[in-house]
Amino acid sequence: MKPLAGVRIADFTLHAAGPFCTHILSQLGAECIKVESAARPDIFRKPHPVYGRMGPASFDQVASNKLSVRINLKDARGVALARKLVGASDLVCESFRPGVMERLGLGYAALAALKPSVVMVSVSSSGQSGPDSHFAGYAPLFGAWGALGYLTGYEDGPPVEMRHVMDHSVGMNAAMAAVAAVYRLRRTGRGGHVDVSAREVACSLVGEALLFAAAGGSPTRIGNDHPRMAPHGVFRTRDEDRWLTIAVRSDDEWQALVKLMDAPHLLADPRFQSAASRHEHRRPLHGEIEHWTMTCEAGEAERMLQLAGIAAHVSCNMEDIAHDRHLRARGTVVDVEDTAGHSRAALKAPIRFSRSEVGMSRGTPRLGEDEDYVFGELLGLGREERQSLVDQQVIY
Amino acid sequence: MMEEAVAPLLAGVTVVELSRGVAAGYAGRLLSTLGADTVLIEPPDGNPLRREPPFLPPAGEASALFAFLAAGKKSVICDLETAAGRVGLSVLLVATDVFIHDLSAGERANLEIDEQSLRSRYPNLIDVSVLPFGAVGPKAGWQAEEINLIHASGEGFLLPNGLAAELFPDRPPLKVYGHFAEYQGGVVAALGALSALIGREHGGAESVDVSVQDAALAVGAFALQRFGDGSLEHRRTRSFKYGGVLECADGYVELLTLEERQWRGLVELMGRPAWMLDPALADSLERSRRGAEINRAVRAWAREQQTADIVARAQALGVPMAKYASPAEVLSGAHERARELFQSVKIPGAGSLPVLSAPLHVDAAALRLKAGPPRLGEHQHLLTASRHRDQPRVIAEAS
Question: On chain A, which terminus has fewer CB atoms closer than 10 Å, C or N?
Fold first, then answer.
């Protein structure tokens, strides 16, 4: 049994952040009913030439494991149908610009009047309130607004764009808050409105730097450096574009590293006698480390460093990840079948329970694939009524 | 819609955190900010993050990282090297819903708080392990810091992209600032704890195993999806074809036009220069092909602009653009103030300072930080109180 079994979601989210939230909740056992329409299909159903995809995606991680129904929200009867779906759900998730759900008659106040126990989760770029709440944004803008982009970068270079990890971080925070709200619902019967702001998620990921700045400090871009540790970085190995990450935390680890490098002269070097001195002289120190790593095969060096108790890992690309024995053994990376019948690597929700199950039981749904169950069984619409709504492009 | 004060989402939930690292610490912090009563167990010399730089000026005594992560928690010292310390932990766990920790399997066995022991002694306790590579699997015992984990999860290899990758194509890949992967681990651990709390109602308590690598990989799912589509993403090739990071006269902005109307807005924003009116550029594929050429012109234009001015004009025209805000700018931002993102709390050794609460509102209000970070052992009395309350049970267990 999955932990969120029995929780039903009316899912109005689109694009990346919101759908990631409901995807994770669905893997944890919630029944997620994705609301779309042929008039406004989600991005994965459309070609994406920038990514070289000239048709719909055969697999879309964040749409997977969801049920799909069509509801045309531009039609008042579609809104009425959506309200009926909300009446049968515990949780409503949406990621429109603030104000859109209200204009549709599906805002929190309207839905709470319909069903006082409803939990609504809204995901937006800047939150539902505040002077910038109407701003449009994408992942790189969230990172820019939230100081995460400003702080990431080489020390002599520009800020760095955050990409999909930013969207999905927002979705993960939203999933966490949604479950907290479901917990209160189960305990007290009380619903509520959770308002997740993407730019605030970016801020939260540098919360300690913002506090340092509030005290008068000046956090800046520091590349791969660490405020205390050295050696600490990403180093070249003997193979092209194959990198090794190393972080040395203590004198013991430093000595173990030098032994592994067979470079006793470093122990005698006055610049490297203490942690503080190694940090001060980290540029020449990193040169020495790279002199050694350049002779190493990355995976073998990773293994030797770990055996010596030193934090090290290869810089993985997605091919490494797809075949990684540890991730496979944990069930984090699994094989799924796409709509064309091909097997491919996908991700199970990143939580292992001792008793409860987690994971995907189906792939990417076809548009409207689950209307018999949702409109027929759950909402009790008769065959003729449904056909009439299809004919009038309400179910569309 | 203002209503009477509503109980926080996690009112009544009790959490004990035995942590050294950022991921477990952030999990406890999130649960605390959502309303759980959270006790941080510390060794006699304090949680190691208390000694992690940078330290808050001017005194330079309090760690910014610890202060952020421990805000709102209570501190109890338990020296787990001693029998008395282990009894102290036991009396706290008796009345606890969620136990978050980042101990290795060996450490847990030595302290007799492995999964089986916990289950038999505290049948209602949800036990959440948060480790770099998780509690099971071939790498379960491996060592890792943030820089290792961001690369073990794939995102490290993909950074930087855009302007930084263009300027420094031969440099090593770059980590995200701070503790990005570890914070993901914290969010996922909080999610796991809460899911188990709900699952406890129908199936009883259980153990939760969270890996920071898994959590950071989860938010990088799109790159694995692209791999399944036949494309191995790389930092030098995944940049947007045009736009992205732009250097202005007084700082940097981000520009991203994915939709036609946004491109048309950009044409207006730049004052309809002749080159942009080329009918061929009305086609998005053609714009992608000529991305480098567009970028040269957009960058030359941007260098003459003031960030505040073009961001305001861009948003008015529906062009997605944002300034790369410095921490100081975020702290003083009108939007952030209106949403009470930062709340003033007392930090021992640093005075009252604004600390980020949580990136969400509940019931139309910011979450309230209950307090600043605790002094070491500030809530030692909890041990005595718990011991009195649970004495019969502790004695029964000991016999």
Answer: N
